[in-house]
Design a protein that fits this description.
This protein is of the alpha+beta class and 87 residues long. It contains 3 helices and 2 strands. A two-stranded antiparallel ribbon has the order 1-2. The chain is elongated, with a radius of gyration of 20 Å. The termini are far apart.
Length: 87
C-alpha cells in the first residue's frame, strides 16, 4: 500500500503520485469516480467501481447468475406496457 502526500491546486485539482499510478495501473485521461464515505474521500477507477458493484450484487443476491435474464424479462414487460399504452 502506497501512502503519498499531495497538494491541491487553486482549482481543486490534485496530481496523483507516480507510485499510485503504477500500483493501480492508471493511465492519463482515465476517468475516475470520487466520492465520500464515512468521512473518507475515495477515488475509484472504472475497473475498481465495476468490481465494487459486482461485489455488492453478489453480496445481496449470492451470485450474478440469472441477473441478465431478470433484467431482460423486466425490460420486455416494460416494453409491452408501453406498447399497450400507445395502442
Amino acid at each position: 500500500m502506497a501512502t503519498e502526500t499531495v497538494t491541491m491546486g487553486a482549482d481543486g485539482s490534485i496530481e496523483l503520485p507516480e507510485a499510485i499510478l503504477k500500483e493501480f495501473a492508471l493511465c492519463t485521461g482515465e476517468r475516475l469516480t470520487i466520492f465520500s464515505e464515512d468521512g473518507v474521500i475515495k477515488i475509484l477507477s472504472s475497473k475498481m467501481a465495476l468490481e465494487s458493484i459486482r461485489a455488492d450484487i453478489i453480496q445481496q443476491r449470492g451470485s450474478l447468475a440469472g441477473l441478465l435474464d431478470e433484467f431482460l424479462e423486466e425490460r420486455h414487460k416494460e416494453a409491452k406496457r408501453e406498447q399497450d399504452e400507445n395502442d
